[in-house]
Each structure stands twice: as C-alpha cells, then as structure tokens.
C-alpha cells in the first residue's frame, strides 16, 4: 500500500488546525470523510463545490488515530504527520490570533454547500457542510482552545502535562461562542420562542402495546424507539418533496405519511447544541438545525410529544416508562394518535420529566407533529420470479408397460 504521508509542509493547506497531522494537496475526490468524519474536512480550493482535504480536528487517542490512518489512504499521499517538527509556540499563537479567517470561510462555505441542493449529491454536500460547522463549533465552544494550550505544552516540554501542571495561554481574547458550546445535559429546557421546523420525516402509525403504554391508540411518533421511519431509522429531510423522492424507490407502508417536527426556537437551539456535542455523523439533521427549513403548506397538526436526544437517537417520554406517572401526577391525557393535545401540556410534561432522575440523561423538550394527508407514491415493485412447473414423472413400471 502506498505511503499516505508524502505531503510537504510548504504545501500544507492553510485551513489545517495546528498539530502533528495535516493535509497538503490531497486528492480532490473528497472521500476521506467516509472513513473519518470526526477529523477530516473538505475545502473549495478548485471552485464553489470542488476542493481538497484538511485536518480540522487532531486525533486525540489511539482509536481516533487508527480511524485517521485508514481515512488518509484516500488522500493519495497528500497527508503528512511531521507537524511537530514545524510548529512552534509562536506559530501556534499566531494561528490562533488569526482564527477568524478560517472561521469565516468555514461558515460561508458550509452555508453554500448546505443550500446547493442536488438530489444526486445532497448527502455528500450536507456531510461536507457538517465537517466545517464542526470546525466552527470547536472554535466557538473552547474545545479547540483547550487542545491548543495542551499542544503548546507539548511543544515546550515534549511530554503530556501532569494533572496539576498549568497549561500555557494562547493569548488574545477568548473565542466568542456563536451557536456552539457544550450540551446543556439535564434540567429544564430553555423553552420559549416561536416554533421552528426541526425537519421532515416519514412516519408510520403503529398500534401501542405493552406495559406502561396507553392502550387503544394508533401512535405517530418521531421517536426512533417507537415509530417506524421510512426509508430507514434516523432519516431526515428538508422538505416534503425531498422525503417523497427518497421513498419513491422503496416499499412504503400504506399508512406512512410525511410528517414535520417542530419545536420552540429556544428548544431547537438546545437540541442543536446536543447534536453537535454528541459528535454523531448526522449531516442532514445537522444542516436542518443550523438553518431550519420553512413549514410547507398543506399539513395538518396531529398533536405534541415530549422528546429527548441521546447520541443519535430521539427518545420519547412514552419509551421511558413515564406514562403512568404522568397520568397520576399531572393528569395528562393522550389523543387517539397517542399525542398530547397542546403545547402547554407538552411543555409542562417536559419540565416535569427534566426534574426526574430516572429517565434517559437527556434534555426533554416539547415538539409538535404536523402530517400531510397524501399517501406516498412508491415506484418500487417487488421482484418476483416464476417457478417453472415440474414435469410429471412417469413411474418406471408404467414406462415398461407403455414401452
């Protein structure tokens, strides 16, 4: 296998974060995020939608290094790992002082990629946008500053700092968070603000059964635990049209419908921080939370549910065994679709759930479901192969008589 680390310091991409690994004129096919979306990002060096690769986050443990090594094979020799031989304390501080250049570029490029809708390449560009927004979030949240202070210690002493040793300062004002930060992690959701669309999904109603669940309801839910999503779990879309396009070539249950999920703007911001902090690879949801899509015409409100995000999954209050307690303590009732009737009830239940200690460690929030009544047309036709009829077999004794 060719050596993937043939890049030269003089040709390094200016967008690389300081550290041992960097990209320098890597391949332009932009494929390495398929193997390592947590450390590699793409640029637009060759045009609005074309470019090379660079390191936006340095691998920090053995597993991360292994992922990066595998992904770097797709860079066609353009990566390098001799950054420690070139970076200096002054050089890192100078890079940090000029970080606004890469931050502004990343925000503008992510916006362009996320809004360049092309059905054939939508997932690629949303993923590319997520890489750049993850980069900005590292800058805004203070995570990159913490890493770079540790890297300064390494450059000065060539060893990791001890638990009580102070880290060098980078200098200059601290980064001003803009939509970043660490997860809230429990407690009351922020609440308030007009509802914004979190995204569109295709949900299939399902009859509830099991202890601790409401009886006799046909539940429609955005939860990954309770609802059947089409074409698969965790699939999000930016509009009803995108959802229908994605379902056109798969078998769709007759009852499946396009459904929008929306929440108070403040709760949407909390969810966005939770998703970014989880560092899950969800390019579509990531893009929708940065730039919420408009609510399309023609939908009908179904009701409200209480949800919480946990490392790539949306949990419902119903899948956390809260139904019986909520009925007893709050007197809540659900509709025939298994949902809460109004926003006030849902927000009251979310606050009650956040005050408990026996649920998933999530920030519960109220969300409204809006459904489009039209059935989803599928062009998928099950492939059947006719089995040829077996030729009748004549017994041996009849063949003798007939012969």
Automatic annotation (TrEMBL):
It comes from the Bacteria. This is Uncharacterized protein. It comes from Kitasatospora terrestris.
């Amino acid at each position: 296998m060719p050596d993937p680390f043939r890049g030269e310091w003089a040709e390094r991409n200016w967008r690389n974060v300081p550290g041992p690994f960097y990209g320098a004129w890597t391949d332009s096919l932009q494929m390495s995020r398929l193997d390592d979306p947590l450390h590699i990002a793409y640029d637009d060096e060759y045009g609005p939608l074309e470019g090379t690769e660079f390191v936006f986050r340095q691998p920090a443990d053995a597993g991360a290094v292994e992922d990066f090594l595998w992904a770097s094979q797709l860079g066609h020799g353009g990566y390098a790992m001799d950054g420690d031989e070139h970076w200096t304390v002054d050089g890192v501080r100078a890079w940090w002082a000029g970080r606004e250049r890469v931050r502004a570029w990343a925000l503008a490029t992510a916006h362009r990629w996320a809004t360049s809708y092309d059905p054939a390449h939508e997932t690629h560009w949303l993923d590319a946008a997520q890489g750049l927004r993850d980069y900005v979030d590292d800058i805004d949240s203070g995570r990159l500053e913490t890493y770079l202070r540790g890297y300064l210690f390494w450059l000065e002493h060539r060893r990791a700092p001890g638990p009580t040793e102070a880290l060098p300062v980078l200098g200059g004002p601290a980064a001003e968070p803009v939509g970043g930060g660490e997860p809230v992690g429990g407690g009351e959701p922020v609440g308030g603000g007009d509802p914004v669309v979190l995204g569109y999904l295709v949900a299939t109603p399902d009859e509830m059964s099991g202890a601790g669940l409401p009886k006799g309801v046909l539940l429609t839910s955005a939860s990954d635990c309770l609802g059947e999503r089409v074409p698969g779990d965790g699939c999000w879309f930016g509009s009803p049209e995108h959802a229908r396009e994605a379902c056109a070539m798969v078998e769709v249950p007759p009852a499946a419908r396009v459904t929008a999920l929306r929440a108070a703007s403040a709760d949407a911001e909390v969810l966005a921080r939770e998703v970014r902090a989880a560092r899950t690879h969800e390019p579509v949801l990531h893009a929708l939370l940065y730039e919420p899509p408009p609510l399309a015409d023609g939908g009908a409100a179904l009701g409200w549910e209480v949800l919480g995000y946990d490392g790539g999954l949306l949990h419902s209050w119903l899948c956390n065994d809260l139904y019986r307690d909520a009925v007893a303590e709050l007197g809540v009732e659900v509709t025939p679709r298994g949902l809460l009737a109004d926003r006030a009830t849902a927000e009251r239940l979310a606050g009650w759930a956040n005050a408990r200690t026996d649920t998933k460690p999530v920030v519960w929030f109220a969300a409204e479901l809006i459904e489009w009544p039209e059935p989803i047309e599928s062009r998928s036709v099950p492939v059947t192969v006719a089995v040829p009829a077996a030729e009748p077999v004549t017994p041996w004794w009849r063949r003798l008589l007939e012969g």
